[in-house]
Protein backbone atom coordinates (compact mmCIF):
# COMPACT_ATOMS: atom_id res chain seq x y z
CA UNK A 1 0.00 0.00 0.00
CA UNK A 2 1.21 3.51 -0.77
CA UNK A 3 0.21 6.64 1.09
CA UNK A 4 -0.25 10.34 0.43
CA UNK A 5 1.61 12.00 3.28
CA UNK A 6 0.19 15.49 2.86
CA UNK A 7 -3.37 14.18 2.68
CA UNK A 8 -2.81 11.92 5.71
CA UNK A 9 -1.37 14.79 7.75
CA UNK A 10 -4.09 17.24 6.73
CA UNK A 11 -6.68 15.07 8.48
CA UNK A 12 -4.82 15.44 11.79
CA UNK A 13 -4.18 19.15 11.17
CA UNK A 14 -7.93 19.62 10.75
CA UNK A 15 -8.75 17.73 13.96
CA UNK A 16 -6.13 19.78 15.85
CA UNK A 17 -7.45 23.05 14.40
CA UNK A 18 -10.92 22.13 15.66
CA UNK A 19 -9.52 21.59 19.16
CA UNK A 20 -9.22 17.80 19.04
CA UNK A 21 -6.44 15.94 20.82
CA UNK A 22 -4.14 14.21 18.33
CA UNK A 23 -1.42 13.35 20.83
CA UNK A 24 -2.90 10.57 22.96
CA UNK A 25 -0.25 8.13 21.78
CA UNK A 26 2.58 10.52 22.62
CA UNK A 27 1.09 11.16 26.06
CA UNK A 28 1.07 7.45 26.90
CA UNK A 29 4.65 7.06 25.66
CA UNK A 30 5.75 10.08 27.72
CA UNK A 31 4.27 8.49 30.87
CA UNK A 32 7.14 5.96 30.71
CA UNK A 33 9.62 8.87 30.89
CA UNK A 34 11.82 7.61 28.06
CA UNK A 35 15.00 9.40 27.02
CA UNK A 36 14.88 7.80 23.58
CA UNK A 37 12.01 6.59 21.38
CA UNK A 38 11.80 4.82 18.04
CA UNK A 39 8.58 5.74 16.21
CA UNK A 40 8.17 2.57 14.13
CA UNK A 41 5.89 3.14 11.15
CA UNK A 42 6.13 6.87 11.90
CA UNK A 43 4.12 8.04 8.90
CA UNK A 44 4.20 11.84 8.82
CA UNK A 45 5.81 11.98 12.27
CA UNK A 46 2.72 12.83 14.29
CA UNK A 47 3.95 10.96 17.38
CA UNK A 48 7.71 11.50 17.00
CA UNK A 49 7.43 15.26 16.51
CA UNK A 50 5.28 15.67 19.61
CA UNK A 51 7.77 13.60 21.66
CA UNK A 52 10.69 15.67 20.33
CA UNK A 53 8.82 18.80 21.42
CA UNK A 54 9.07 17.42 24.96
CA UNK A 55 12.83 16.93 24.73
CA UNK A 56 12.85 13.21 23.93
CA UNK A 57 15.44 11.92 21.44
CA UNK A 58 13.36 10.41 18.64
CA UNK A 59 14.02 8.44 15.49
CA UNK A 60 11.36 7.73 12.87
CA UNK A 61 11.25 4.78 10.49
CA UNK A 62 8.74 4.17 7.73
CA UNK A 63 8.83 2.41 4.38
CA UNK A 64 6.61 4.93 2.61
CA UNK A 65 8.35 7.72 0.72
CA UNK A 66 5.40 10.14 0.68
CA UNK A 67 4.76 9.80 4.43
CA UNK A 68 8.44 10.43 5.13
CA UNK A 69 8.60 13.43 2.79
CA UNK A 70 5.87 15.06 4.88
CA UNK A 71 7.66 14.09 8.13
CA UNK A 72 10.89 15.65 6.82
CA UNK A 73 9.09 18.82 5.76
CA UNK A 74 7.50 19.15 9.19
CA UNK A 75 10.61 18.39 11.24
CA UNK A 76 13.84 18.48 9.22
CA UNK A 77 15.98 18.12 12.36
CA UNK A 78 14.71 14.65 13.30
CA UNK A 79 16.39 11.47 12.02
CA UNK A 80 13.94 9.85 9.61
CA UNK A 81 14.84 6.56 7.93
CA UNK A 82 13.12 5.04 4.93
CA UNK A 83 13.29 1.36 5.89
CA UNK A 84 11.10 -1.71 6.10
CA UNK A 85 10.37 -2.62 9.72
CA UNK A 86 10.49 -6.26 8.70
CA UNK A 87 13.85 -7.48 10.03
CA UNK A 88 14.86 -3.87 10.72
CA UNK A 89 18.40 -3.33 12.00
CA UNK A 90 19.33 0.26 12.87
CA UNK A 91 22.17 -0.89 15.13
CA UNK A 92 20.79 0.90 18.19
CA UNK A 93 18.20 0.39 20.89
CA UNK A 94 15.64 2.65 22.54
CA UNK A 95 13.82 3.06 25.86
CA UNK A 96 10.48 2.81 24.03
CA UNK A 97 9.54 1.61 20.57
CA UNK A 98 6.05 2.76 19.62
CA UNK A 99 3.78 1.57 16.82
CA UNK A 100 0.82 3.94 16.60
CA UNK A 101 -1.92 3.88 13.98
CA UNK A 102 -2.44 0.20 13.18
CA UNK A 103 1.09 -0.32 11.82
CA UNK A 104 1.01 -4.17 11.91
CA UNK A 105 -2.20 -4.12 9.87
CA UNK A 106 -0.42 -2.42 6.95
CA UNK A 107 2.61 -4.68 6.64
CA UNK A 108 2.24 -7.26 3.85
CA UNK A 109 0.26 -10.31 5.04
CA UNK A 110 2.54 -12.94 6.54
CA UNK A 111 5.28 -10.47 7.50
CA UNK A 112 3.82 -9.65 10.95
CA UNK A 113 6.18 -11.96 12.92
CA UNK A 114 9.24 -10.48 11.19
CA UNK A 115 7.89 -6.96 11.67
CA UNK A 116 7.44 -7.55 15.41
CA UNK A 117 10.92 -9.14 15.57
CA UNK A 118 12.34 -6.15 13.69
CA UNK A 119 10.92 -3.56 16.06
CA UNK A 120 11.39 -5.66 19.23
CA UNK A 121 15.09 -5.95 18.42
CA UNK A 122 15.34 -2.20 19.05
CA UNK A 123 13.93 -2.32 22.61
CA UNK A 124 16.74 -1.99 25.14
CA UNK A 125 16.79 -4.16 28.30
CA UNK A 126 14.01 -2.92 30.64
CA UNK A 127 12.58 -0.95 27.72
CA UNK A 128 9.12 -1.26 26.20
CA UNK A 129 7.28 -1.90 22.96
CA UNK A 130 3.93 -0.06 22.85
CA UNK A 131 1.51 -0.81 20.00
CA UNK A 132 -2.11 0.05 19.31
CA UNK A 133 -4.16 -1.59 16.59
CA UNK A 134 -7.68 -2.66 15.68
CA UNK A 135 -8.62 -6.26 16.34
CA UNK A 136 -11.24 -6.73 13.65
CA UNK A 137 -8.90 -7.03 10.68
CA UNK A 138 -7.45 -10.51 11.11
CA UNK A 139 -4.37 -9.91 13.28
CA UNK A 140 -5.26 -11.08 16.77
CA UNK A 141 -3.85 -10.30 20.19
CA UNK A 142 -2.92 -13.99 20.58
CA UNK A 143 -0.86 -13.71 17.40
CA UNK A 144 0.73 -10.44 18.49
CA UNK A 145 1.58 -11.73 21.99
CA UNK A 146 3.11 -14.88 20.48
CA UNK A 147 5.19 -12.78 18.07
CA UNK A 148 6.37 -10.58 20.95
CA UNK A 149 7.24 -13.67 23.03
CA UNK A 150 9.20 -15.14 20.13
CA UNK A 151 11.09 -11.84 19.93
CA UNK A 152 12.07 -12.04 23.61
CA UNK A 153 9.50 -9.60 25.05
CA UNK A 154 7.19 -10.25 28.00
CA UNK A 155 3.63 -8.99 28.35
CA UNK A 156 3.22 -6.06 30.77
CA UNK A 157 -0.23 -4.49 30.38
CA UNK A 158 -3.01 -3.93 27.88
CA UNK A 159 -5.38 -0.97 27.57
CA UNK A 160 -8.52 -0.35 25.54
CA UNK A 161 -7.36 3.14 24.56
CA UNK A 162 -4.24 5.30 24.55
CA UNK A 163 -5.67 7.09 27.59
CA UNK A 164 -5.31 3.83 29.51
CA UNK A 165 -8.88 2.73 29.95
CA UNK A 166 -8.76 -0.94 31.03
CA UNK A 167 -8.96 -3.53 28.26
CA UNK A 168 -11.99 -5.77 28.76
CA UNK A 169 -12.34 -7.15 25.24
CA UNK A 170 -13.40 -5.06 22.30
CA UNK A 171 -12.11 -4.12 18.89
CA UNK A 172 -9.06 -2.01 19.75
CA UNK A 173 -6.18 -2.55 22.13
CA UNK A 174 -2.96 -0.84 23.15
CA UNK A 175 -0.43 -3.43 24.29
CA UNK A 176 2.72 -2.88 26.31
CA UNK A 177 5.47 -5.51 26.27
CA UNK A 178 8.88 -5.18 27.87
CA UNK A 179 12.34 -6.63 27.45
CA UNK A 180 13.44 -8.29 30.72
C1 LIG B 1 -1.84 4.46 9.47
S1 LIG B 1 -0.16 4.85 9.23
C2 LIG B 1 0.31 5.38 10.88
C3 LIG B 1 1.35 6.46 10.86
C4 LIG B 1 1.75 7.02 12.22
N1 LIG B 1 2.31 6.00 13.07
C5 LIG B 1 0.58 7.66 12.90
O1 LIG B 1 0.06 7.08 13.87
O2 LIG B 1 0.15 8.75 12.48
C6 LIG B 1 0.65 3.25 9.13
C7 LIG B 1 2.11 3.41 8.73
O3 LIG B 1 2.78 2.16 8.91
C8 LIG B 1 3.76 2.06 7.91
N2 LIG B 1 4.16 0.65 7.75
C9 LIG B 1 3.36 -0.44 7.68
N3 LIG B 1 4.10 -1.55 7.50
C10 LIG B 1 5.40 -1.16 7.46
C11 LIG B 1 6.61 -1.85 7.29
N4 LIG B 1 6.66 -3.18 7.10
N5 LIG B 1 7.76 -1.14 7.30
C12 LIG B 1 7.74 0.21 7.48
N6 LIG B 1 6.60 0.93 7.63
C13 LIG B 1 5.44 0.25 7.62
C14 LIG B 1 3.05 2.61 6.67
O4 LIG B 1 3.94 2.95 5.64
C15 LIG B 1 2.30 3.79 7.27
O5 LIG B 1 3.04 4.98 7.18
Task: Give me a quick take on this structure.
The protein has 180 residues and is an alpha/beta fold.
Structural commentary:
The protein has helices at residues 5-17, 24-30, 46-53, 65-74, 112-120, 141-150, and strands spanning 36-40, 57-62, 79-82, 94-99, 123-134, 154-159, 172-178. It is an alpha/beta fold and 180 residues long. The chain has a seven-stranded mixed β-sheet with strand order 3-2-1-4-5-7-6. Strand 1 (36-40), helix 3 (46-53) and strand 2 form a beta-alpha-beta unit. Helix 5 (112-120) crosses helix 6. The longest helix is centred in the N-terminal third of the chain and has 13 residues, at 5-17. The model has no long low-confidence stretch (mean pLDDT 98).
How far apart the termini lie comes to 35 Å
Instruction: Give the overall shape, derived from the CA principal axes.
Output: globular
- The ordered string of helix (H) and strand (E) elements is HHEHEHEEHEHEE
Secondary-structure-based class equals alpha/beta
Strand order of the largest sheet: 3-2-1-4-5-7-6
Query: What ligands can be seen in this structure?
Result: S-adenosylmethionine
Percent helix, as a range, is 25-40%
The stretches of 5 or more residues where confidence is low (pLDDT under 50) are: none
| Number of E-type strands | 7
Percentage beta strand:
25-35%
**Helix count, per DSSP?**
6
Q: Could you give a short account of the major beta sheet? A: 7 strands, mixed
Mean pLDDT: 98
Radius of gyration: 15 Å
Amino acid sequence: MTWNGEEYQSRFDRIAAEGGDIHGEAALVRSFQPASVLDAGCGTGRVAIELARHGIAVTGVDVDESMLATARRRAPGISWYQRDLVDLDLGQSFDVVVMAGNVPLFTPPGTEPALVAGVAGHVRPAGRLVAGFSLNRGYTLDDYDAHCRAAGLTFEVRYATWSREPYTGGEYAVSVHCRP
